[in-house]
Amino acid sequence: MKRILSGMQPTSQLHLGNYLGALKNWVAFQDDPNAQCLYCVVDLHAITASYEAANLANATREIAAAYIAAGIDPDKSSIFVQSSIPEHSQLMWLLATMAQMGKLERMTQFKDKAGKNAERAGLGLFAYPVLMAADILIYKATHVPVGEDQKQHLELARDLASTFNTRYGVDFFPQPEPVIAGVAPRVMSLRDGTQKMSKSADSDMTRINLTDTPDMIAKKIKKAKTDAEPLPENLAGLDGRPEALNLITLYAALADKSKEEVLLHFAGKQFGQFKPEFIDLAVEKLSPITTRMNEFMDDPAQIDSILSDGSEKARSIASEVLAKTQEIMGFYS
Ligand code: AQP
Asked: DSSP states of 76-108 as a string?
């Protein structure tokens, strides 16, 4: 039996990178009869960056609404909020005693987010991957669908699982496998094909948000950076053309096609011909999600009820795993 766990931060609205790199793949897992799916909104991670306390609860509901609108079915998967399960933080502390500073210092996300201010960065930002390991191990998750940017964090979770097992001479935590799936595991900025599409990038024109209207989607795609060459007939022709590669990748992922198929369709055409078709496709695929999200956001009581049910199911697993972890570690009970 596979146990699937993943989450997203309620830092701001989800974008196409979150959707194509992770969320779209989560939906597919639900139909695997051998998989139990747990999807959380990781609010404890969100507070590692500056945030508005007055917006956090609503942003948390909005991410839950995006999950459901994108196809996560509360009857098939448990949807819950990380902070409603205190066992995440409790296991984090236990794992923190085994996490090596040297390994944490090598985490590229910490380096990127702390930037030149590493000395002033919070301990929470530094320890983020340990909390992420706890999020996964508290459910003994076997598979973690994420975008490519999270691979290094997953390696730390695997490392901590084996450190624990070796130190205590047990075979308790499984090695969680990253599942980096789909055509677009790393979606790039619309304005710079060498930078990851990110919620925290300053310009909103760099990303397509799941809350964008069709007009906004069209505007962002029209303004997306391209180059002067026509589209090639094969992938080799996209070498050294990061923006063109990104747009073809996005088209392929949204159309459920391979990049090769997309190139065969557009070979020899200019971006002026490509972009209108891309706009139509993006609007066709994303608008229904936006509409459903808005409907859910109009009914917060329904979201709260789904989150409460999901939390109950998740907590029954987490409390058992934490109790067993504490027993293995020799705690008084
Ligand atoms: N550009 C991306 N391409 C593919 N996958 C991506 N993910 C994020 N950006 C891309 C995947 O989305 C999931 C949830 O991400 P998160 O909300 O936990 O935070 P993040 O990875 O830090 O996302 P952002 O947009 O980059 O947020 P900020 O700007 O706040 O740091 C993860 O599975 C991630 O891989």
From this structure: TEEEEEGGG-THHHHHHHHHHTT--HHHHHT-H
The amino acid occupying position 111 is: K
pLDDT confidence band for 200 (50 / 70 / 90) = confident
- β-partners of residue 5 are 38
**Is residue 206 in contact with ligand 1, taking CB distance under 6 Å?**
no
| Active-site residue, 113 included | yes
Instruction: Indicate whether residue 199 lines ligand 1 (CB < 6 A).
Output: yes
What is the spatial distance between Cα 145 and Cα 179, in angstroms, rounded to a whole number? Answer: 4
**Tens digits of residue pLDDT in 70-124:** 999 999 999 999 999 999 999 999 999 999 999 999 999 999 888 888 899 999 9
Task: Report the alpha-carbon distance of residue 133 to residue 159 in Å, rounded.
Answer: 9
Closest CA to 81 of 51, 53, 60: 60
Residue 249 · residue 259 · CB < 8 Å: yes
Q: Give the distance from CA 76 to its chain's centroid.
A: 19
Which atom of ligand 1 is nearest to 184's Cα? 4
Q: Is the distance from the beta carbon of residue 208 to the nearest atom of ligand 1 less than 6 Å?
A: no
The residue written with tokens 């557009």 in the block is 266
Q: Which of 199, 219, 225, 257 is catalytic?
A: 199
Residue 38 near ligand 1, beta carbon < 6 Å: no
Q: How far apart are CA 174 and CA 128, in angstroms?
A: 20
DSSP string, 177-214: EEE--SS-SSPBPSS-TTSB--TT-S-GGG--BTT--H
How many Cβ atoms sit within 10 Å of the Cβ of residue 269?
12
Is 196 among the catalytic positions? yes
Q: Sign of dihedral through CA atoms 234, 236, 240, 242?
A: positive
Domains of the chain plus CATH, in order, are 2-185+300-329 (3.40.50.620), 204-295 (1.10.240.10)
Q: Is the pTM of this model over 0.70?
A: yes
Q: pLDDT by residue (tens digit) across 164-173?
A: 999 999 999 9
**Region 253-271 average pLDDT:** 97
Q: pLDDT-derived band of residue 202, with 50, 70 and 90 as boundaries?
A: confident
